[in-house]
Specification:
CATH class of chain B: Alpha Beta
Radius of gyration of chain A: 22 Å
Number of domains of chain A: 2
Radius of gyration of chain B: 17 Å
Helix content of chain B: 25-40%
Number of domains of chain B: 1
Shape of chain B: globular
CATH superfamily of chain B: Class I glutamine amidotransferase (GATase) domain
Number of strands of chain A: 17
Strand content of chain A: 15-25%
Strand content of chain B: 25-35%
Largest sheet of chain A: 9 strands, mixed
Distance between the termini of chain B: 44 Å
CATH class of the largest domain in chain A: Alpha Beta
Structural class of chain B: alpha/beta
CATH superfamily of the largest domain in chain A: Mur-like, catalytic domain
Bound molecules: zinc ion
CATH architecture of the largest domain in chain A: 3-Layer(aba) Sandwich
Number of strands of chain B: 14
Number of helices of chain A: 16
Oligomer: heterodimer
Structural class of chain A: alpha/beta
Number of helices of chain B: 6
Helix content of chain A: 25-40%
Shape of chain A: globular
CATH topology of chain B: Rossmann fold
Largest sheet of chain B: 6 strands, mixed
Largest interface: A-B, 35 and 35 residues
């Protein structure tokens, strides 16, 4: 615990070291996409030739940020980097902001998967907002205009920078039942939506008061999903328009890319470097990984919460484009643990829209072959049963399940593995034990 | 026969997969050829009993939502719901919904939100030195069912509030592993006639199919007192229950 130790030796160590960073520090917080967005910014900075120090995944508390800076500093006290780039847990934002003189603080979204930890979503918003006065006079916040609770953080802040998606074709037409922030954060009236992209994220306004989605300075339009291979979109910045592509699927990654672009450009990076960095970005540790196993491919897609799960089902399993390419719906291994890092309460599985999947695959189409595993394999099996999706096998042991699902996947095809966090670590270890270690630890 | 599920404040009180309870009831009725209609009863909308079998669900919400709907509940809707319970109607309240079935729910800010008072109980906020009660729960149901079997239920609780039952309240279950109403007296939930209140989600009904069936049968028998339910293959549900229960017993 170098961070803990360093802080014990000198409680002001983070403040002192961050003052020595020539280009200051930026922090990224929010429920979903912190790691991916931070890695995207890191890739962009690298492309632009800016040396940045960043904390590693899982070390997103104030001690982790401190540790990153300490290890970046030479014995004489000089930092190797010009800039700090930190992924910060929502609850740690006030501490980090107080000590690290953030020139930019980006808030990606607020979803409900932290209930175990913080109790209430609106409380989390208050915690984050309490950090704003600690930003230096020239500091600013970068906010998701399409998430009402996040956008609301911009009221009463000077010069908030907003990002958002504008593409009517992406409107799902309905609020998902999991939408957990669909009332006006100012007056409590139900918001009226012009477009709902996922969860409570979309284009909205309050019918009762003046609260409405702010006009974003950074926009993604004309979003084109290219299945699991990637996504193209038109990136509009205050400086102009740019064709952008990321090698990651799903609308949520477009949001991550937009946030990364906004942070990088506000930090002084040229738009051309942003586009090049995004294009070169290959995915963050554990979020989307492809592993070659002989003539088969394993796609690991981390599941964090119902919104992410729905996006993954929509993109990979129910996607018409995908099914047109393959005449069978494929093999899917769902792995659910309930350790602290996964979320101990598995109720959220009932908020995932498996019914949508059942509707999408039944009319004449092939149904995916589902394998379930993990500590809560049996709960997952019941969930699929009640969505009327057939479960091929329930194998709580992770290794056995992976071998069975891999064995049943024909050569030339892909096994989709959808694990929660700790099952992902277990399955990755299993793959590694089997000698399929290829891109695991390669994270930049 | 048709079963109508009245989902109270479905758009506001849907924390912790309450949707799972709706899905469980719906599917288990449909698998037996019983048509199901789900009616969302929102703010300002009154409960409209139908000529079919009725079942009322009242789920959990965040404090903010709970405050918003208390006024709505203090009018006709609360009185109607009370009448439904006294008349033997089937009601299931989970977490926040359960709390509002007592005399009052006190928020952490000290505001006392009046409940509908069908259970003789109140809920106070946790004190500064008390933790939220979070974790898996295994509990033994207090009343044996008509088949004489004493059932166990498994679920997950997550509440700061402590519920204290009065002399006229019957607990729903006794805690085997977990905290229950207040983490002190070993009781979990409350029951009165065909009204059930509990802190368990998980979701509650999918893993405890006997309880789902009991609610459905209770509703059907209000229309036809000889109603029966065909047995279903519950092996997947039983496996899910057993997996949690065994793990909890081992500690
Ligand atoms: Zn408003």
């Amino acid at each position: 615990m170098p961070g803990v130790m360093a802080r014990r030796v000198d409680p002001k160590v983070l403040e002192k070291l961050s003052r020595r960073l020539r280009r200051g520090s930026v922090a990224i917080t929010g429920t979903n996409g912190k790691t991916t967005t931070t890695r995207m910014v890191s890739k962009i900075l690298h492309t632009a030739g800016i040396r940045a120090v960043n904390n590693s995944t899982g070390a997103n508390l104030v001690t982790g940020v401190t540790a990153a800076l300490v290890s970046d500093t030479s014995l004489s006290g000089r930092p190797a980097s010009e800039m700090g780039l930190f992924e910060v847990d929502e609850a740690s934002v006030p501490r980090v902001a107080e000590e690290a003189q953030l020139s930019l603080l980006a808030v990606l979204n607020l979803f409900r998967d932290q209930l175990d930890r913080y109790g209430e979503l609106s409380y989390t918003a208050k915690v984050i907002a309490s950090a704003f006065p600690d930003l230096p006079p020239d500091g600013s916040v970068v906010l998701n205009a399409d998430d009402p609770l996040v956008a609301n953080l911009g009221r009463g802040t000077k010069n908030p920078v907003f990002f958002g998606v504008e593409d009517p074709a992406l409107d799902t037409g309905k609020l998902q039942h999991i939408a957990d922030s669909k009332d006006c954060p100012v007056c409590g009236t139900a918001l009226s939506y012009e477009a709902v992209y996922f969860g409570h994220v979309g284009v909205y306004r309050c019918p009762n008061c003046s609260f409405a989605r702010p006009e974003p300075a950074y926009r993604a339009t004309r979003v084109r999903m290219d299945g699991p291979r990637g996504t193209d979109f038109l990136l509009t910045t205050p400086g102009g328009e740019h064709e952008a592509r990321i090698g990651l699927p799903g609308l949520y990654n477009v949001y991550n890319a937009l946030a990364a672009a906004a942070v990088a450009i506000e930090a002084g990076v040229e738009a051309e470097d942003v586009v090049r960095g995004l294009r070169a970005f290959g995915g963050a540790f554990g979020r989307v990984e492809r592993v070659r196993v002989g003539e088969k491919e394993v796609f690991l897609l981390l599941i964090k919460n119902p919104v992410g799960f729905n996006e993954i089902l929509r993109t990979f399993v129910a996607s018409p484009a995908e099914r047109a390419n393959a005449d069978r719906a494929g093999h899917v291994l769902i792995a659910i643990n309930d350790n602290d890092a996964d979320g101990r309460d598995v109720s959220w599985l009932w908020d995932v829209d498996f019914e949508m999947l059942a509707e999408a695959v039944t009319p004449g189409g092939a149904v995916p072959r589902f394998y379930v595993t993990g500590i809560r394999a049996e709960d997952m099996a019941v969930r699929l049963k009640y969505a009327e999706l057939p479960v091929h096998s329930v194998i709580p042991d992770r290794k056995e399940a992976l071998l069975a699902a891999l064995g049943a996947t024909p050569p030339g095809e892909t096994l989709y593995v959808l694990p929660t966090y700790t099952t992902m670590l277990e399955l990755r270890q299993t793959l590694s034990d089997l000698g399929h270690t290829h891109p695991f630890w390669e994270d930049k | 026969m048709k079963l109508t599920i009245h989902h109270l404040y479905a758009d506001m009180m849907n924390l912790y997969g309450d949707r799972g309870n709706v899905i469980a009831i719906k599917k288990r009725a449909e698998w037996r050829g019983i048509a199901v209609e789900v009616v969302d009863v929102g703010l300002g909308e009154s409960i409209s009993p139908t000529s079919s079998a009725d079942l009322f669900l009242f789920g959990g919400g965040q404090d903010r939502e709970q405050t918003l709907l208390v006024e709505d509940l203090s009018g006709m809707k609360g009185a109607d719901l009370r009448a439904v319970v006294e008349d033997g109607g089937v009601v299931l309240g989970v977490c926040g919904g359960y709390q509002l079935m007592g005399h009052y729910y006190e928020t952490p800010e000290g505001q006392k939100l009046p409940g509908i008072g069908v259970f003789d109980m109140y809920t106070r906020p946790r004190r500064g030195d008390e933790a939220r009660l979070i974790g898996n729960v295994l509990a033994r149901v207090r009343a044996p069912e008509e088949d004489g079997v004493v059932h166990e239920v498994a679920g997950f609780e997550n509440h700061g509030g402590r519920t204290e039952l009065g002399d006229d309240a019957e607990p729903f279950a006794d805690v085997i592993v977990g905290y229950g109403n207040n983490g002190r007296d070993g009781t979990e939930g409350a029951r009165r006639l065909n009204a059930y209140g509990t802190y368990l989600h998980g979701s509650l009904l999918p893993k405890n199919p006997w309880l789902t069936d009991q609610l459905v049968l209770g509703a059907l028998r209000r229309v036809d007192d000889r109603a029966e339910l065909e047995p279903l293959d519950d092996s997947a549900e039983r496996d899910a229950f057993a997996s949690v229960a065994n793990r909890l017993r081992k500690g």
